[in-house]
Specification:
The protein has 277 residues and is of the alpha/beta class. A hairpin with a 5-residue loop joins strand 11 (193-198) and strand 12 (204-210). The two termini are 12 Å apart. It has an 8-stranded parallel beta barrel, surrounded by 6 helices. Strands 5-6-12-11 form a 4-stranded antiparallel sheet, with no helix packed on it. The chain has a two-stranded antiparallel sheet with strand order 1-2. The radius of gyration is 17 Å and the shape is globular. The chain has helices spanning 32-35, 85-96, 112-120, 143-156, 172-181, 215-228, 242-250, 260-264, 268-276, and strands spanning 2-3, 13-14, 18-20, 48-50, 66-70, 73-77, 103-107, 130-134, 161-165, 186-189, 193-198, 204-210, 233-236, 255-258. The chain has a single domain (2-276), classed as Alpha-Beta Barrel (TIM Barrel).
Length: 277
């Protein structure tokens, strides 16, 4: 077993170093039967599932979340659309509690207070193993902004706190240090990168680029952050096979997150886990 939050009293233990990065499997319930998430022994290859970003109250966005295929990977947009924290507590968490793998809820809010309240509402909820906080989703790209956000969430809950770092911040190492100093149990990086792609009608679509194009940048930043901090690091960004996962682990990562690879093929986690374990 691997503990992603060894300094937290709750701990966050995973049986496989392969996790489903935020948003790649929705809330898990959508693919539970296909992957056998409630089956024992497990054959899905996953150590944990991180949900899509969820806010205190339901959010509707336009355009709705969609994936645009580009030569470099997938451009994701409409990420704010979600059913809210009440749906997590009442609809999804009771199902997660029956699974033999942890589910970490990725939280999002329009203000620091909203983010902290969303985290507080997950405290003590059976089926919720931790919370993830994306700095990029909140525009917290400086150590000062990141520190305030992380500290607010840390005060709101004792659940294991995973802070996700962006790949386009001016100083990623400073963000990493600030997040750990203010209470992060685990760091995850990198988030998708802001990008634009042309549409068939000639318009331009903006979103976050995920996929193989960002893998070399992710690997470099993961190695740098692992050398800088003492907490566990989850390496994310363009990993699609066992070779990529082994490179992330060799760079110092404790676990590897799959994102767009799972959107392409739900069996990817089984293959990658089988190739490194």
């Amino acid at each position: 077993m691997i503990d992603l939050a060894p300094q937290n009293p709750y701990a966050l233990t995973i049986a496989s170093p392969i996790i489903a990065a935020a948003g790649s499997l929705g809330y898990g319930v959508e693919v539970a039967r296909h992957l056998g998430l409630g089956s024992r022994p497990a054959t899905h290859g996953l150590g944990a599932i991180f949900t899509r970003g969820t806010s205190l109250r339901p959010q509707k966005s336009r355009p709705l979340q969609d994936m645009i295929e580009t030569p470099a990977g997938l451009l994701c947009r409409g990420w704010a659309h979600n059913p809210g924290m009440r749906a997590v507590r009442e609809r999804f968490a009771p199902i997660w509690a029956t699974w033999d793998l942890p589910v970490v809820v990725s939280i999002w809010g329009e203000s620091v207070a909203d983010v902290a309240e969303a985290a507080a509402q997950l405290e003590g909820v059976e089926g919720v193993a931790g919370v993830e906080l994306s700095l990029a989703a909140h525009g917290a790209l400086t150590p000062e902004a990141a520190g305030r956000l992380v500290a607010a969430v840390r005060r709101a809950t004792m659940l294991p706190l995973v802070v996700k770092l962006p790949g386009h911040a001016p100083d990623t190492l400073a963000l990493a240090r600030a997040a750990v100093e203010r209470g992060a149990d685990t760091l995850a990086l990198i988030d998708g990168l802001p990008a634009t792609t042309p549409m068939p009608d000639g318009s331009l679509a903006e979103g976050m680029l995920c996929g193989p194009a960002i893998a070399p940048l992710a690997l470099r930043l993961v190695a740098a952050v692992c050398a800088e901090v003492s907490v566990p690091v989850i390496g994310i960004g363009g990993m699609r096979d066992a070779a990529g996962a082994r490179a992330m682990l060799a760079a110092g990562a404790t676990a590897v997150g799959l994102g767009s690879a799972l959107l392409t093929d739900l069996r990817t986690a089984t293959r990658v886990a089988g190739g490194i374990m």
